Amino acid sequence: MNLSVIPNLVMLVMFGSAASVTLAAEPAGTLDDPIIDSAMSVADAFDGLAVDCPEEIRERQKLVTVLYYSFDHKIHQGQVLIDSELEHDIQRVFAVALQEKFPIQSVIPISHPRFRKEGNWDDELSMQANNTSAFNYRVIAGTTRLSNHARGRAIDLNPLLNPYVRGESVSPAGAVYSPHTPGTLTDENSVTQAFLRLGWGWGGHWQRGQDYQHFDKP
After folding, report:
1. Residue 188 domain flag
2. pTM recorded for the entire structure
3. What is the end-to-end Cα distance of the chain in Å, rounded?
């Protein structure tokens, strides 16, 4: 055998093995092998919180793992940080969304580094990414009153597709509410109905501006 070809054979074996390992490790995006969008610890989920959240509120929050059908037509796994009392509600609603193949972009706690600005949690970055999130210790925009998100008793779903609309004002900036677009919430949508059956309120029913992304259970 020509010894000069041995290095080439070794390289071929090495790269072939690496490729096979990569393919085997790549998630299929199925129920048994979902694509992991979020795998944070509880410490990660609270990391970088710039304001003093009362301990009694912090202790009530729980990281809930959820599966969902996303816009790439694959199954993903994410996490919702929410009041522990609402864990079963969240699991039931996400089960409906998954069964109906209602697409959800991502479900990642807002403390993730990609949703931070100057080190602080930034709701606008999360909304612009169409990310679904729940707990966020903050006040209601334009007021000094705590939001239901600050208690982990509200969730915003696909916010770029389901913006807050009041007259000409739209949040997040540049969003357009189009009821027939996949991932958009309407009164008849199975996800909306699942929340309502469990006693949640929907911002799409508000009289002074509609917050289509928002569900809460005070």
Report:
1. yes
2. 0.85
3. 77
